[in-house]
Amino acid sequence: MNTKSFLTADEVAEEMQIGKSKAYQIIRILNAELESMGYLTVRGRVDAGYFRKKACYQDSAAPEEGGSHGSV
Fold first, then answer.
1. Cα(70)–Cα(63) distance, rounded to whole angstroms?
2. Closest CA to 41 of 52, 54, 28
């Protein structure tokens, strides 16, 4: 199974059935939360595991260990 580490605004918009501008707003909010916890983020993308947790799709709140958490 090939699971992505990060989701784009298009993917967030599609998954939540919302507009792209709202998806960017959600990404900014989630990335700010991650940064406050000491994680590195990528502008315009959100950690897939954290997104799914906050959207009630997954159990763990913090990004999964061993995932890509680099900053660009």
1. 12
2. 28
The pLDDT tens digits of the residues spanning 20-52 come to 999 999 999 999 999 999 999 999 999 999 999
Q: pTM to 2 decimals? A: 0.75
Query: What is the domain extent for residue 26?
Result: 6-54
Supply the DSSP string of 17-67, one letter for each residue.
T--HHHHHHHHHHHHHHHHHTT----TTEEEHHHHHHHTTS-S-SSPPTTS
How many domains are there within the chain?
1
- Domain presence at residue 71: no
Please count the CA atoms within 13 angstroms of the CA of 64 that sit on its side-chain side. 14
Only one residue has tokens 């315009």, namely 44
